[in-house]
Design goal:
mainly beta; Immunoglobulin-like; 5-stranded antiparallel beta sheet; 20 strands; 47% strand; disordered N terminus
């Protein structure tokens, strides 16, 4: 009786082995970004690998969901190479969630944040002490009606000295601002966007004023 049971168990194992070996390997798909924060107008390269089964020359659909993050749409397509690798350059205009799909395989979702492009210029970089200087610039994309911070660098960090409100710039997708400030001593200044739901905080390049 024991011998019969042993033979039966061995036979079942042998029959089961080919079935397990013949089972298809489930595919997996990865995705990463060359940067997780990008300046408005810039691009980010999404890339990843399709593994398992046949992965050469497979279509990868990159889906995108920009703010307010309410549903994916097709953001572009890529094709895997002989090793299953793929890549695609994207140009997000606002904070955006991405996910890649190939067949039945989905990558984990990832977020790419966008900071506005903001400029600052001074009407006079070498004013006389106590003279008013016009601080102005643009912010893209437009955020009409939003206040930004004009800041001056101090020993303890950046201190806000004015909060001009962004105004519409006709025929463009940018906003502008302007503020006249009295400059009494040398200093470095910057314009700062404080961030909101669709764009993260960002700064202009610092500009120096040297009084005489």
């Amino acid at each position: 009786m024991k011998r019969t049971l042993l033979i039966s168990a061995a036979t079942l194992a042998a029959l089961a082995a080919p079935s397990a070996q013949g089972a298809p390997t489930p595919q997996t798909l990865t995705m990463s970004a060359s940067a997780t924060t990008v300046k408005f107008g810039g691009s980010v390269t999404l890339s990843g690998k399709l593994a398992g089964g046949k992965f050469d020359a497979k279509n990868v659909t990159v889906r995108e969901d920009p703010f307010p993050i309410d549903g994916f749409a097709n953001g572009g397509n890529a094709t895997t190479n002989a090793t299953g690798d793929w890549s695609l350059a994207v140009n997000p205009f606002a904070n955006t969630r991405y996910q890649a799909r190939s067949g039945k395989a989905d990558s984990p979702a990832l977020d790419v944040m966008v900071r506005p492009a903001i400029t600052l210029k001074l009407s006079d970089r070498t004013p006389k002490r106590g003279r008013r200087v016009n601080f102005s610039g643009t912010l893209c994309p437009e955020h009409d009606g939003v206040a930004i911070a004009l800041q001056r660098r101090s020993a303890s960090g950046w201190r806000t000295v004015a909060k001009p409100v962004l105004a519409d710039v006709a025929t463009t997708t940018c906003s502008s601002y302007a503020k006249r400030l009295r400059v009494r001593r040398n200093g470095a200044y910057r314009a700062r966007f404080l961030g909101d739901a669709d764009h993260v905080a960002g700064n202009s390049r610092a500009r120096r004023a040297r009084v005489h």
